Structures are given as C-alpha cells and as structure tokens.
From TrEMBL:
Residues 145-371 form the SUF system FeS cluster assembly SufBD core domain. This is Putative iron-sulfur cluster assembly protein SufD. Pfam families: SUFBD_core. Coiled coil: none annotated. It comes from the Bacteria.
Length: 401
C-alpha cells in the first residue's frame, strides 16, 4: 500500500517562539474557497454559485447525477419517519420557524440551502436533560418516491444526558437532507447514520453537530446502497472540554458514487477529535470519495486531533479519491496529524492464509472482514451490527476474483 501522512505537534523556533510545521500532503493553499474558515454559509440558495467541478466542494461529485437537488423545486414526499425506542425520548413535528431548527448549523453548500428553503416541517428528537437512555433510539426513514424532496431532522441532547440514535435510510428516494445534532453541556450522544438505499436512489445529507462544554459526540457513518450518496458530517465545538469521534465505512459497487466530506472545527481551547474512515471498492466505475477537513483556529490552544482514511481496492476498475486537509492557526496544540492510504489486497496476507489451506476466495473475504469490521464494532447495537455484517458478506460474495 502507498501511504502519505504526517503528525504535527507544538514546536518552537530558535527565538523560543511557537511555530507551525506546515503540512505538505493535502496542501490546498492558493485554491479558491479551499480554506474552511472562509467558506460561505447561508440559508439562501442564491448566495451559492451554480454547481461546477471547478468548485472545491464539488470537484469529485458527478453533478448531473444529483437529479436536480441543487436547483429543482424539492416538492416530492420526504421519506416517512418512524421512531422506536425508550419512551423518555420525545419525538415531535415542528414548523421551520421552531427555535430548535437551525440551532446546530447553517447550510454550507447549494444543495443544503435548497433543502432548507424547501422543507416545511422538521422532525425533532429530544433527549431530556439528565436522561440516561439505555435502549437505542431507532429512526427509520423510508423513501417511496423518486421525485426530488427535502427533509429536516433535529436531534437535541439535553445537558448531562446519554443516548444512542440510529438514522436508518431505506427504500427509494431522491433526497436533500439537513440533520442537526445539538449536544448540550456534559451530554454524551452517539449517532449512527446508515444509508441502505435501493440502487437508483440519490441522497445528499448535511449532518451538523455542535458540542457544549465537556460534551461527547460519536458519529458513525455507514454507506452501502444508492446510486449517488454524498454525506457531509461536521462538528463544531462551542466550549472547552469537548470530545468527538467520527467513524465511517463505505462499500462501493459497480457504478456507485459514495462520497463522505467531513469537517471538524476546533475554535475553542482544549478539545479532542479523532476520525477513522474506511472504504472498500469493487467493480467497474465504482467511485469513492473521502475528504477530511480539520481546522484548528488561533484561539484553539491545547487541541488534540488526528484523522485517518484507509481504502481497499478489491479488483480492477474502481477509483478512490482521498484528501485529508489540516489547517493550523496556532502552534500551541497538544498534537495534530493525518494519514491516508489506498491500495489493493496485500499478497502476503493472502499467501499466509492460503498456505494454511484456506481457498483464495475465502482468504480474500477474511482480509476484507478484518479491515472493515473495526468500524462496524463502533455501532454499539448488536442486532444492527449483525445485519451490517450480513450485508457486507453479501457484498463480498459479489467480488470478482
């Protein structure tokens, strides 16, 4: 496997002043709109230019396959929402004017802004203050239409609460979606976002989280189905002591485009973030994209962050674009780094297993299982983990040997 990466830590020059060791891999200096610090945010679609491959945020995305989510009137029916789990969790439908809507983020791209201007009601899932929710909250979103639609979901975790929320996307949809996670002081929220759409579905989802003081947030993204799926998770710290972990798994098949673009905004002191995304790709014209942006602002002293992306190409034909970006505006940090690897199955691993009597096709599956199952274990719901393992087994059974 080829690998590029580095670790950056606080250093001092000969004068004893803090200095930054600038990254070489993923250097995007000089690229228009490349810095996350200056990106446009707006509720108004008119504030964003028409989509083009010349725009940094869209240079890997097959824009024509969005099927109008960037400029069409999103008047189709949104996926139906059903919620199961602990009775302590409250589920309500609220108008777009509700104060909880927009509390965790503002649209950062044209598709998200189009959805914002199109939805009329939002689903709000509230975890009360101090509640310790033992049972997972399963939110199933079932699409039944190919007409372009908009949807808005808000998950509000009260102070010192603890909960696990699963967003499971199934059925057929052409959907632009905004999801907000508001994690109050001392709260501990785990979110699992599953994309298990039918093969003809299109899904663009902006998922934004804000963390209060000493809050903990874990986001697990699993994308398996759909024609084009583009998920953009972001996390922003609003007070010291926050801790975020972001995990991702994509399995890209023939002709699929599965894209993950994440952003971690360290704007306050003494917060920690860890990112670990993995992809497996197989088949002709399978295209995976991972872009990881981490920004450490000047006031975010004591930041501790690291992001990792690893990708496995299972046969000839797929393409993987992996871009880790690390911007640092202060040298007074605990540590920062990133790494990206993309490669094919290791022949030595296969030889080791085959030399012990394991057929080649089974050996290949064992290696891929070991590579991907680390992410599935982060889900935290045994029944769901078993279903995901079965889904991956089905995908691996289709691999060309």
């Amino acid at each position: 496997m080829s690998q590029e990466g580095e670790t950056l830590q606080e250093g001092r020059n000969q004068a004893g002043e803090p200095e930054i060791r600038h990254t070489q891999h993923g250097d995007i200096s000089g690229v228009p709109d490349s810095s996350r610090a200056g990106r446009t945010t707006s509720y108004d679609i008119a504030d964003f230019p028409p989509l083009s491959s010349k725009l940094e945020d869209w240079r890997f995305t097959p824009i024509k396959r969005l099927r109008g989510l960037d400029d069409a009137a999103l008047q189709g029916p949104a996926p139906a929402v059903s919620v199961s789990g602990d009775d302590a969790v409250q589920v309500t439908s609220v108008p777009s004017e509700d104060p909880r809507v927009g509390s965790a983020g503002i649209p950062e791209d044209r598709v998200s802004a189009n959805a914002w201007s199109s939805f009329r009601e939002a689903t709000v899932i509230s975890v009360p203050r101090d509640a310790q929710v033992a049972e997972p909250v399963i939110v199933t979103l079932t699409g039944e239409s190919e007409e372009p639609a908009a949807q808005h979901i808000v998950v509000d975790a009260g102070s010192n609460s603890k909960a696990l929320v699963v967003l499971r996307h199934v059925g057929t949809a052409v959907l632009s979606q905004n999801v907000e996670f508001s994690v109050a002081d001392g709260a501990n929220l785990t979110v699992v976002s599953l994309q298990e759409w039918t093969d003809d579905s299109v899904h663009a989802s902006s998922q934004q989280a804000t963390l209060g003081r000493d809050a903990t947030f874990k986001h697990v993204l699993v994308s398996l189905g759909g024609d084009l799926v583009r998920v953009t998770p972001s996390t922003r710290f609003t007070a010291p002591g926050g801790d975020v972990e972001m995990y991702g798994l994509t399995f890209v098949d023939d002709g699929q485009h599965l894209e993950s673009r994440l952003f971690v905004d360290h704007s306050v002191p003494r917060c920690r973030s860890r990112v670990n995304y993995k992809s497996a790709l197989q088949g002709e014209n399978a295209h995976g994209v991972w872009v990881g942006d981490v920004l450490i602002r000047a006031e975010a002293e004591g930041t501790d962050t690291y992001e990792l992306n690893r990708n496995l190409i299972l046969n000839d034909g797929p393409r993987m674009d992996s871009v880790p970006n690390l911007e640092i505006e202060t040298g007074l940090i605990a540590g920062a780094g990133h790494a990206s690897t993309t490669g094919q199955l290791d022949d030595e691993h296969l030889y080791y297993l085959m030399s012990r009597g394991i057929p080649e096709d089974q050996a290949r599956r064992l290696v891929v299982r070991g590579f991907l199952f680390e992410i599935i274990q982060q889900v935290g719901v045994e029944a769901l983990e078993e279903q995901l393992r079965a889904s991956l087994e089905a995908e691996l059974a289709r691999t060309e040997n």
